[in-house]
Amino acid sequence: MSNTDDGPRSYDMVAAQAKWQEFWERDKTFQADRAATKERRYVLDMFPYPSGDLHMGHAEAYAMGDVLARLWRMQGYEVLHPIGWDSFGLPAENAAIKMGEHPAKWTYGNIETQKTSFKRYGLSLDWSTELHTSDVGYYKWTQWLFTQFYKQGLAYRKNSFVNWCPKDQTVLANEQVVNGACERCHTPVTKRRLSQWYFKITEYAQALLDDMAGLEAGWPERVLAMQRNWIGRSEGAHVDFVIEGREEPVTVFTTRPDTLWGATFMVVAPDSELAGELCSEAAREAFEAYLERVKQSTEIERQSTEHEKTGVDLGISAINPVNGERIPVWAADYVLAEYGTGAIMAVPAHDQRDLDFARKYGIPVTVVIDTGEADPRESGIATVGDGNYINSGPLNGLSDKKSGVAKAIEVLRERRAGAGTVTYRLRDWLLSRQRFWGCPIPVIHCPSCGEVPVPDDQLPVELPDLRGADLAPKGVSPLAGEAAAEWRNVPCPQCCGPAERDTDTMDTFVDSSWYFYRYLSPNDDTRAFDPAEVSAWMPVDQYVGGVEHAILHLLYMRFFAHVLHDLGLIDFNEPMRRLLNQGQVINQGKAMSKSLGNGVDLGKQIDAYGVDAVRLTMVFASPPEDDIDWADVSPASSLKFLQRAYRLATEVLSAPGADPATGNIELRRATHRAIKAVTDLVAIGRFNVAVARVMELVNATRRTLDANPAAGADAAVREAVGFVAQALSLVSPYVAEEMWELLGYAPSIANSVWPVADEALLANDTVVMVVQVQGKVRAKLEVPEAITEPEATELALADPAVVRALDGRAVAKVIVRLPKMVSIVPA
RNA sequence: GCCCGAGUGGCGGAAUGGUAUACGCGGUCGGCUCAAACCCGGCUGGUGGUGACACCUUGGGGGUUCGAAUCCCCCCUCGGGCACCA
């Protein structure tokens, strides 16, 4: 403790950082006690990809998660706050190719660098459960989970057109195609027909949708909206059309079965198998040429809004099941092979796409709903609203879509030509990647037994050490190359005949779909995770990460949980109770990027202002979910504030056990108001406002000290400064530890007991009562908090400003809200 | 086109039916200093007025209410997601 003029008046952030890092490590301050009988809390940050070093984005995200982890620890919960590395992935492989090194070297080297930065950043992380998805001890269990999925029929291989990135020379999941381009390298994606592994996420489409109801309280609405959108539930009907000269009918999906009487042609996706099957001999040549053209075009071209619809007549006819009309069948690129049944009935009068196509190719247009708008045949604009049904047999006489659809489905059922149904936009998760640095798919292809999953006792399938081999993308996995021949050629686990390993690796989103279970027993080599530990700690109480994962990781990990639940491995469906999507750190209105040269170096910020100030700046700048523009904030002023707070601790003269009960009552009230506000605000994630309340308490304490030379000895000052230190420890742990030590308490402040506000001190002797006349504030009166309604009314009506505002008018009504407001309504 | 979210001082933001602009940044005036930096203190939404004070102000317009940034309707703008999904 020091209060002499020559004592330290400011904290040395560099020394404090070194000192407390060492202390926390030695003390194992943040290591969770697995045997604890206390109530548990699990705080989880999305684990980082070891891309080089900690950057501004990480810094913000991890600062947010740490606030809650530290609050809950001080509130007496046993908190688990683990960390690990999402360490498989393309950047490592690309770096390895560039530098001629093994991806592991780059990856684990980065982890060392990043780990040092994490430790300096002062997060309350439990390093004892650190894991790496690229460790054999981890990916063995990724493989085991794959085989479990396989046995349930939830992992399967199929041959179809897939998204292909020509630059990375690998396939991509739908979720990884952004605006028709590779989400990673932005190269336009093309289509390739390949045999690939999929997870059957579509089987869980409805379950994933249904369970969102339970997430509404804890997840941001926008993430749920994005997931709903992505799953894309669509209600409609299947309709069977008989094809002339073919036994099997063709089924189409439509959301508008009520317009069936207006169908004037049918369209199938050119790249579907169906198109090739249906095509007449006469049209064959034209169709093949057309298909070739479609395959050549990139997704960007295809999806362009200016893209004009094209197609070819397949030279055959379909029969409309409700009116027996013969309609032509076309192949056109505006119909997608993967959605619905890959075939549609086209109703040009009431669907704009069909109308555009019909007008271009001279196909007739039949209006079956009179909406009172212009005739689509003349206007070129399809009418899609409610109206009177015409030329629609049993629907004639109806006048709204809802009953039209219901009636149409009834007709279809009677004729056994269709039924109501639901379709989803969601596709199965394509998980094969033609790359080296990932988890090998544990399947062996045997010429006689076919696909054989690697038996449990032969797991893991370890990656071969291809050091020195050429990993450059060639369109097939490096594991399919000559260098891996020895690894690849193995006996079939079933018949022992010669067989080959699958040479693809898994999408890294598979690795990250289950890491939070593994944290609970990271070294268990007998199973993927311990169900008892999972049951004790999960679901996760707070998950923190970027919104960019809204429909990738966050959907995949939910799917995994549903499957794990169905496999009986976990006892819940939804692993994350609450989700916080922190915003991004931007600079001068734009995302930081090399090309713009507006990047802000985290290390330099920390060197200049210290960890405490940088973290405080992040937390105070804006609500956690909003972006922070580094050009708008001031880490220098954060540091200034922290020094102001620190200085208070140097001025405390009372002893550590001093009873604040007889201390300065005004300051005590300010302290307890702050305790209440900060506790509540942090719990609901309003961290920026909580910091503002701490600043107010610092200001109030400063004023108390400045007003009275003896105030340093007042225990109320100690109480205030103690809470300032505790509250600051959520964000700026180094200065908080320094203050705590100055106050004479034993370290660490992280083990201190978070105070509970004293209700008696939340009340005031007097409050400001506002008097409104006709809704306008006319007077502010200092009144006792215990004022009664008649007293308040009398005081209000007697106020000169109120009298002036009433201007002689009688009072019609007085509304009193004790003790803060009186509203007077003149006659 | 469809689905979300948001518009508050010069700036980041606070207030979610009851004192609009908390807290901070910036600005400005003053103190300390030979001086400057640091630090400390005052003032700081707009218009009018010497002043007490008055009027206006939460993207725009309307409504509900004693009272609206907050709730309802219409419109505008920005951000995000999806998008030839039948």
- Fraction of residues in H or I helices: 25-40%
Cα gyration radius (Å) = 34 Å
Helix/strand structural class:
alpha+beta
Largest sheet: 7 strands, mixed
Overall pLDDT score: 91
Distance between the termini: 65 Å
Low-confidence stretches: 1-7
Task: Describe the protein's architecture and organization.
The protein is an alpha+beta fold. Helix content is 36%, strand content 20%. The chain has 27 helices and 34 strands. Strands 10, 11, 12, 13, 14, 15 and 18 form a 7-stranded mixed β-sheet that branches. Strand 13 and strand 14 form a beta hairpin. Helix 1 (13-27) crosses helix 24 (733-742), helix 19 packs across helix 20 (635-650) and helix 20 crosses helix 22 (687-707). It is globular and about 105 Å long. The protein starts with 12 loop residues before the first helix and ends with a strand. Residues 1-7 have low confidence and may be disordered. It binds one RNA strand of 86 nucleotides through helix 7, strand 11, strand 15, helix 11 and strand 30.
Sum up the structure in keywords.
seven-stranded mixed sheet, 27 helices, 36% helix, disordered N terminus, RNA-binding
Short description:
36% of the residues lie in helices and 20% in strands.
Secondary-structure map with pairings?
Elements: H1 13-27, E1 40-45, H2 56-74, E2 78-80, E3 82-85, H3 90-99, H4 103-120, E4 126-132, H5 136-151, E5 155-165, E6 170-172, E7 177-178, E8 181-182, E9 190-199, H6 205-210, H7 221-231, E10 233-243, E11 250-254, E12 265-268, H8 273-278, H9 284-296, H10 299-303, E13 311-319, E14 326-332, E15 343-346, H11 352-361, E16 369-370, H12 376-379, E17 388-389, H13 401-414, E18 418-424, E19 429-430, E20 432-433, E21 443-446, E22 450-453, H14 485-488, E23 489-491, E24 498-501, E25 505-506, H15 508-511, H16 515-518, H17 531-537, E26 542-546, H18 553-566, E27 579-582, E28 585-587, E29 590-591, H19 602-621, E30 628-629, H20 635-650, H21 665-683, H22 687-707, H23 715-728, H24 733-742, H25 759-762, E31 766-773, E32 776-784, H26 789-798, H27 800-806, E33 811-817, E34 821-826
Parallel strand pairs: 1-2, 1-26, 3-4, 12-14, 26-27, 28-30, 31-34
Antiparallel strand pairs: 5-6, 5-9, 7-8, 9-19, 10-11, 10-13, 10-18, 12-15, 13-14, 16-17, 20-25, 21-22, 21-24, 23-24, 28-29, 31-32, 33-34
Helix pairs in contact: 1-24, 2-19, 3-4, 19-20, 19-22, 20-22, 20-23, 20-24, 21-22, 21-23, 22-23, 23-24
The structure holds one RNA strand of 86 nucleotides.
